[in-house]
Amino acid sequence: PVKAAAKTSTSATQTTATVDKAQVKAFKEQVEKHLRTTIGTSPVKASKLAWWQAVVATVNEDIFGRLTDTQQTHAKNDTRAVHYLSAEFLMGRLTINNLTNLEKFDVAREALKEFGLDINEICEEEPDMALGNGGLGRLAACFMDSLATCNYPCVGYGIHYENGLFRQEIRAGKQVERPDSWREYGCPWEACRPESVQNIPLGGYVEKQTAPDGSQCSVWHPSSMIKGVPWDIPVVGYRGSSVAILRLWESRSTEQFNWDVFNAGGYVDAQAEKSLAETISKVLYPNDSTEAGKELRLTQQYFFCACSLRDILRRYKRSHHNDFSEFAAKIAIQLNDTHPTIAIPELMRLLIDEEGLSYDQAWDITSKTFNYTNHTLLPEALEKWPVYIFEKLLPRHLELIYEINFRFLNGPVEAKWPGNNEIKSRLSIIEEGEVRKVRMANLCVITSEHVNGVAKIHSKLVKENLFPDYAQLWPNKFCNVTNGVTPRRWILSCNRGLAELYNDVAGKDWPLDLDKCEVLKKYADKKEYQDRFMKIKHDNKVALAKTIKELTGVEVDPNAMFDVQVKRLHEYKRQHLNLLYIMSLYKSLLEDPDQDIVPQVFIFGAKAAPAYTLAKDIIFAINAVGEKINNDLRIKGKLKVVFLPNYRVSLAEKIIPAADISEQISTAGYEASGTSNMKFSMNGALTLGTMDGANIEIVEQAGIENNFIFGLSVDEVLELKPRYNPWDYYNADHDLKAVVDWLDSDFFTPGQPGALSSIKTSLLNNGDPFLVLADFASYKEAHQRAQKLFKDKAKWARAAMINSATMGIFSSDRSIRDYAENIWTLRSQIVKK
Ligand code: C3B
What we know:
By secondary structure, the chain is of the alpha/beta class.
């Protein structure tokens, strides 16, 4: 039974659901009580920030009770649990999401309305929790939501960075980085847990000792101790099922650390050492897919892994004392990329040096406990640490790594390829050379039970191109888990209009079973449903147009086609391909201003790593070209280009529901999966993209005919790359040549000729490493197809609806169930209320 379709009262921020009056009253009373007794103000004088804090305090009352229930259930049943180790968790804001998951959003909205407040405005007070760079960190956040929702016993472990990813300002078209102080006024969601503080040794030297029985052992004499203070952030499952914990470690100095100096009158020295210890969790490294290679970064990685393992051991020992035989049966650890790899030798060290197990016993446990997810094939992202840094910071860990390596090369490798030194040097954890290095990915593969990639094509490339020798040795170690995103945040919370439509056609359980949304396909040819679907999109575009105006001053028409590319700025993601196309469109409009094209708004959001010069130049170029186009009266507003500053989770929530076109245009083979591609499709955007990462699986679901696929395939890229010459494409295509040369002029940067030349240089003189010129013609053609379809409103609506309806498999619940079944062998636990 489906309600009348032509419901028009639904907007981006408003639902028509009726709300229980008694619940509203109770919520209001709680908020007012907290305003007075927790925050210390009153409704008459409270600031928006105070109101927000009172709302959080109200929600927390619900959350903490359920958290205790969850933890007691798990402890009582001594359940197996997964421990998700990740240097990044890009949580974004939590208020609307937590209200949604507790099914209290409508109640809270009405309660605040009765105070004369708009819930969306109040929730804007919350700073984004941006403890991650991009896809990898956001994936970890979606996974926490799904772990809680699907009732899997779990803990997320990470770093309590004082400063998250930098805030981006755009000044005169250029990126400027500003610190992000997300906790400046405290974060009301987190709870400090002093009872679980850990002390972590660092530095020093290893002493060889001979035991009375003549055997050799190593004793580590660290030079300092760092205190790890845990902060817990509860993660509420949908409909309050269970509440998971995200435990983030903050570094502090220990008393032991500076006591002697202090006594000797070294008060200032002691303070200096203190600041060193406290530096560890000060700031998130702002590199997405490139290693920083800095001492402090390895210290961060070691610090949070060491704290987390001690926490895991402490909890294990509470029920199993000193008997480690059950350890691997109770504990699964997932390494989110190579960043937490140091947990491997640290667990070995704890078991051998602190718990007295033999090497073989420790290895048996360790190699059954860890699993590793690879997120990229980019060589510059594969972490390699100079041996000398290890010698200085973690001498005992280095010794254990050598031991693991020795046994591996002389065991399985020698057995499979006797006397083959070439293969040994390829598979070795240690890379020889002027500077000897530890290859973290090799350590992960050697130790882990399972190694997975994040989309089908990527997992295939991990197995066949990145680790082919390991795959010969252990073919069954390698598997795929395609990424997913949480439909609670990425549809239900951020697109209320669409959520209501799904409530009407699919029933209210679709956020727990996204496959249910497939019924919308049945309505994709019905005019009234097409109209309702496109009305929702239009309302979202109106709301985004307002945001665009506020943030950039640029006026855009919600009837235009909104074409969006939002993601980190990287050459492989090819924002500059998009830019070249925009320039060619602009050029053709100047040549013929009256041509009948669909009005288009190109929307960008992207942060560049602060030291990535070319990426910053591309941001400047987008802004410079946009400035010119947006103010050129000759083209009659048919084209607008907007760069939204400070792209982050909360901005994504406004942009994605308003997109018509989702640009997913990486060079095939380079984007491991992508996850915004899934969010866009769910929200009814059509993908204009290459056959890369999860795009392939998206069009498998939604149909290639309902998206705009272009460009070289992975195999074609691999084939072309060795003999690629960008000049051939440049010389053969007049239009391409004209726009590339345009970058060299001062047309877009009056008085500053050459300000955009670095892009041309990279495309021609530096060999165009990501084949931008090779894909240009095909990309242009795909845009023409998109324009043509956009003119046919009914056909467009149908394609958009089919995209949205067929994204069921991209729910992160499906990803998490895949991990639970195939990698963790983990069972869900219903928590009784
Ligand atoms: C990203 C990849 O670039 C994306 O394709 C992928 O969807 C996500 O991870 C999640 O799997 N990635 C990242 O954000 N940071 C890295 N260091 C490596 C990969």
